[in-house]
Amino acid sequence: xxxxxxxxxxxxxxxxxxxxxxxxxxxxxxxxxxxxxxxxxxxxxxxxxxxxxxxxxxxxxxxxxxxxxxxxxxxxxxxxxxxxxxxxxxxxxxxxxxxxxxxxxxxxxxxxxxxxxxxxxxxxxxxxxxxxxxxxxxxxxxxxxxxxxxxxxxxxxxxxxxxxxxxxxxxxxxxxxxxxxxxxxxxxxxxxxxxxxxxxxxxxxxxxxxxxxxxxxxxxxxxxxxxxxxxxxxxxxxxxxxxxxxxxxxxxxxxxxxxxxxxxxxxxxxxxxxxxxxxxxxxxxxxxxxxxxxxxxxxxxxxxxxxxxxxxxxxxxxxxxxxxxxxxxxxxxxxx
Length: 336
What we know:
- The structure is a single chain.
- Helix 2 (66-75) packs antiparallel against helix 3, helix 5 (136-146) crosses helix 6 and helix 9 (208-221) crosses helix 13 (292-299).
- The chain is 51% helix and 8% strand.
- The protein has 3 domains: 56-118, Endolytic murein transglycosylase (Dna Ligase, domain 1, 2-Layer Sandwich), CATH 3.30.1490; 126-194, Endolytic murein transglycosylase (Dna Ligase, domain 1, 2-Layer Sandwich), CATH 3.30.1490; 196-333, no CATH class.
- Strand 5 (308-311) and strand 6 (317-320) form a beta hairpin.
- The chain contains 14 helices and 6 strands.
- By secondary structure, the chain is mainly alpha-helical.
């Protein structure tokens, strides 16, 4: 073989070697690029580092597009990458469901996308205690402190004429329950709890509103079941003979003050319809939501000839038939 041919073959082998090396380098670069893209993509689908540290509610408004949802989730630090969320959700699910979503812990983009597509809201039932004697305003605050986007002013408007009829109880609501739904639940509960007493109400010769109003006074005045029945009897005695009820608890409702804070000016205020010293009969409305025990006390009071009562420093209630006897007991038990 000639020297020229040998040189040509050597050159070919050299070129093939360069080509193979180039292909290997190109392949390595491609693999490295793809690996980088995969790693980047994986990192982009993980929960962001600034994911909220506490339970977070995210509202996806009715009619929101996938683009809108992606933007909201990004702003709330629930996902890292809007674009990947959009592409994946369109490819995998096509649509999402609106509503309130609760996020308790970091979730991957795939998980968040699946939840929105399937309407997995993750909402926990909220347990709310409405105490006996609470007013509508107090109830509204209790609810707004526990629930999501609950508007106390709207609730008060809805329940404007329902003071005393929002039954005190332990309730279980979804955190996004509307003011209308909450009010209806509480009013329905009142009707349910009062249903067994319908015959007693008819026999009482009082309207339901009058019974609830008197029961709301008893709720504030008495500390136990026996005292409720006794005090209900005393207040009914006063109503029967046309004596002013003279209860201090109405000032909790109108002025937010107790007996020690009541002034002579308060007692002489004729313009206050809840002043039971100046106005005979029941106040215009209940002063809170009485429990069933106080309603029972009004329907089945302990009958007596007592017209006065007072609680001593130990909380024990003492009853009197006359004002003179009442004054003597004030001196004995209260020192004045």
